[in-house]
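Q: Sequence in, structure out?
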Amino acid sequence: MKYLTLSNSKIIKGFQKGFITYGLHLAPSTLSGRNVCPNASPGCAEACLNTAGRGMMNMVQEARINKTNKFFDNKYEFVLQLVKDIQAGIRFATRKHMNVCFRLNLTSDIRWEKYGIMQEFPKQQFYDYTKSKQRMRAFLGRGLGYNSEMPHNYHLTFSRDETTDIEFIKEVIKKGGNVAVVFDEIPKTWEGMDVISGDDHDLRFTDPHGKIIGLVAKGKAKHDDSGFVVKVKSESEQQNQKK
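A: Exactly. Output:
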């Protein structure tokens, strides 16, 4: 079984920028009976894009659950196969004369820096979103020259949800990190911070530093009322009514 995919609709957008992105889909949160998203909030778990696109197919869901169980049952063998998939991806991109990058947490938040994968491929770019403050601080500490477990070729974007305190978001932005925020409509600024669209592509490691990465609510997130999705439209309507 090959673990990496090219078919995710978001990562395909990187083709226009000369990047082939390989991603790993596991069964998110506790869907498999094992938790791969230890910091997921209720709103995040409910709005997850796990069933977007081909994800709505039963066979795809079963494959993701099987991969998740394989990871927990024998992590050594799982990582060995993952390394083989990465090697194959590099060869494919080379033949196509394109850059290649890897996102191993398409629907999970596993600390892949612990498994030596990025270290095995120091010339390749890896990136992910994370909801772990610990992981994000380790990533930011690396950028400031502190000792860090984060490999130099691994980029993280913090993912805000309804439980995230604004003070932490501002801390990340101040230190040059980026924070992904889901909106019903992407604004130019939010809480006094600049917002750029993150929907044009998924290559987060190419984003300018110290920005809010705005993502438009999709799928089940369009109906979110937990606070996971920041409601810009409703706020604008209220301000117009006051005028």
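The first helix runs from residue 42 to 47.
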